[in-house]
């Protein structure tokens, strides 16, 4: 989970710095609850193309809208970004893929690195 605050990835001046996050089950970004968006922030040369998320089941990204998620996310059982009716756009700097279910994006801006 990335809840209650943002996650900052520091490249320490190395444009090739890479991060691989693996989880056996779900990934939830935003909250606690659905009301508070969270951000993944890149600093000091970190690049979205070098961030990878492997999710064992499903991913929920900023259900209440808003927030910035970065990297390539691969989920086994689907992913959702934002939900209908949110006034604030969610932003994805990267890609979201699902191996066995759908990817649902509502009110979302996608920037491909």
Radius of gyration: 13 Å
Low-confidence stretches: none
Distance between the termini: 23 Å
> Numbering strands along the chain, what is their spatial order in the largest sheet?
2-5-7-9-11
Proportion of residues in helical segments: under 10%
Instruction: Tell me the domain tally.
Output: 1
Percent range for β-strand residues: over 45%
Major sheet summary line: 5 strands, parallel
On the 0-100 scale, what is the average pLDDT? 94
**Tally of extended strands?**
11
C-alpha geometry? globular
In brief:
The protein has 113 residues and is mainly β. The protein is built from no helices and eleven strands. It has strands at residues 7-10, 19-23, 27-29, 40-43, 51-55, 59-61, 68-75, 79-81, 90-98, 103-105, 108-111.
